[in-house]
Design goal:
Blueprint: H1 2-10, H2 16-46, H3 53-82, H4 92-115, H5 119-137, H6 141-164
Length: 171
């Protein structure tokens, strides 16, 4: 969500190269943040995790669903470029926005199911509805509001985790 809001912010830059460079640095920062977060926070407290066969199978299902989803999205984009008259009309923006919101909520819900992560269902609804609402109302600040709805409980859970789980001193 925050990335979507940031993308909307950077999308206002006139210089396309600066816009792409800004987004690239933001993505690189996010990857390093995740890597060092795992190295400095998760591994010292919980240890290194090796996933079993069942978990790896679930992750392969998630990858398959996301790849199919990406192919459908690419086919839709190609079709929109080849036959734009199919996507024009009075309600085309509304239909496209709601369709994308439902699609995002569905993909995230599939991930929640296979990861057995119940809170992700709520995040899927927040993310999908925010995406649809931003496109319908043309108000990017809704991405920030949705991101806060996700980040605030996450920060509370993270703070509780840090307070209750101390790093192990031995191997």
């Amino acid at each position: 969500m925050f990335a979507m809001y940031t993308f909307t912010f950077f999308n206002q830059f006139e210089n396309k190269a600066l816009r792409i460079l800004s987004l690239l640095f933001l993505e690189i920062f996010a990857v390093f943040f995740l890597i060092y977060g795992k190295k400095l926070i998760t591994v010292p407290r919980l240890g290194d995790v090796n996933f079993g066969r069942k978990r790896k199978k679930r992750l392969s299902y998630i990858i398959a669903v996301n790849l199919v989803s990406l192919m459908v999205l690419a086919a839709s984009a190609i079709l929109q470029n080849i036959r734009p008259e199919l996507f024009s009309g009075t309600n085309s923006n509304l239909i496209t926005s709601v369709g994308m919101g439902v699609w995002i909520a569905f993909i995230t819900s599939v991930m929640a199911y296979f990861l057995d992560f119940n809170r992700l269902y709520i995040y899927a609804l927040i993310y999908g509805s925010a995406f649809a609402a931003v496109n319908i109302f043309d108000t990017p600040i809704l991405f920030l509001a949705a991101a806060l709805l996700i980040l605030i409980p996450g920060a509370i859970i993270f703070t509780h985790f840090m307070a209750t789980t101390k790093p192990s001193t031995g191997n």
